[in-house]
């Protein structure tokens, strides 16, 4: 196969070594490997005729690569080699962290998983997004701590908020009409913040956005949400709002950060939408 291997040129050395190891394995198995950098990769220009694009990184790398394409339809089938912090997409799609096993996976060419592109203010997101205290915690995550302790840096950031807990009223408008909340999660997959689950019905192939809105986001409400996620999200609290929609607008009483796939990408007011554009993962 002709494979475009796309990654961040400024990767931390250990992660870069894993990417280079994967490149060597793919080449050793007879594949043509084209190296490209995520912030400038244009599939139609840099990898015409490629059979596969391997995005080596986390959810943010995948979001960046897809969002930078002048023509999303020009992307070949995609695979995610997980070298990021959370790796929700790779977890959702079952990609291995072991380079040998990953190479075998992409060679098997399973039936593609097609996912429609969801957007925040016109920019893509792939796995999950939120507005409220969760996004506030993402906004103060230490990048140095992320490199040291991985996803637990997000837990540390959330704990740091407990002294000055942010609460903001939000006005939501979906396909079902208006609604008030203090925290909202927009989900395209089952996993959230790692192996945990906020909505068992959410899936990448879904034909709508799955939304979880909390009427209140006090400390005890977030602790209840954490317990819900850790125990497999069998049944949401009776006063929580869980619904599907094609579009969702969020207006807050004060400017509030918006996170997508583990990075702050916008601030309120913001519009979420599910587009007709799609990508394929193999």
UniProtKB/TrEMBL annotation:
EC number: 2.7.1.-
UniProt KW DNA-binding keyword: no
GO molecular function list: kinase activity
Lineage: superkingdom: Bacteria
Broad EC category: transferase
PROSITE patterns linked: DAGK
One protein family per Pfam: DAGK_cat
Annotated ranges, domain DAGKc: 1-124
Gene3D superfamilies: 2.60.200.40, Probable inorganic polyphosphate/atp-NAD kinase, domain 1
Record's keyword annotation contains 4Fe-4S: no
Record's keyword terms, sorted: Kinase, Transferase
Protein name listed in UniProt: Putative lipid kinase
């Amino acid at each position: 196969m002709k494979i475009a291997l796309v990654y961040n040129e400024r990767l931390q050395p250990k992660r870069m070594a894993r990417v280079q190891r994967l490149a060597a394995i793919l080449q050793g198995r007879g594949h043509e490997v084209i190296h490209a950098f995520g912030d400038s990769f244009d599939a139609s220009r840099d990898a015409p005729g490629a059979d596969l694009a391997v995005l080596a990184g986390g959810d943010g790398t995948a979001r960046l690569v897809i969002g930078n394409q002048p023509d999303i339809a020009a992307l070949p089938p995609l695979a995610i080699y997980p070298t990021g912090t959370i790796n929700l997409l790779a977890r959702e799609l079952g990609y291995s962290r072991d380079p040998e096993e990953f190479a075998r996976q992409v060679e098997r060419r399973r039936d593609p998983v097609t996912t429609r592109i969801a957007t925040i203010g016109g920019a893509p997101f792939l796995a999950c997004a939120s507005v409220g205290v969760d996004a506030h915690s993402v906004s103060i995550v230490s990048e140095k701590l992320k490199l040291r302790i991985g996803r637990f840096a997000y837990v540390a950031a959330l704990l740091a908020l407990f002294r000055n807990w942010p609460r903001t009223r939000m006005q939501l408008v979906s396909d079902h009409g208006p609604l008030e909340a203090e925290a909202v999660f927009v989900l395209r997959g089952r996993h959230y913040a790692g192996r945990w689950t906020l909505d068992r019905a959410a899936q990448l192939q879904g034909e709508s956005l799955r939304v979880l809105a909390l009427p209140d986001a006090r400390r005890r409400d977030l602790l209840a949400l954490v317990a819900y996620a850790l125990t497999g999200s069998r049944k949401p609290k009776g006063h929580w709002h869980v619904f599907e929609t094609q579009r969702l607008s969020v207006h807050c009483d004060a400017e509030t950060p918006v996170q997508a796939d583990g990075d702050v990408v916008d601030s309120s007011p913001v519009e979420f939408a599910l587009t007709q554009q799609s990508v394929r993962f193999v």
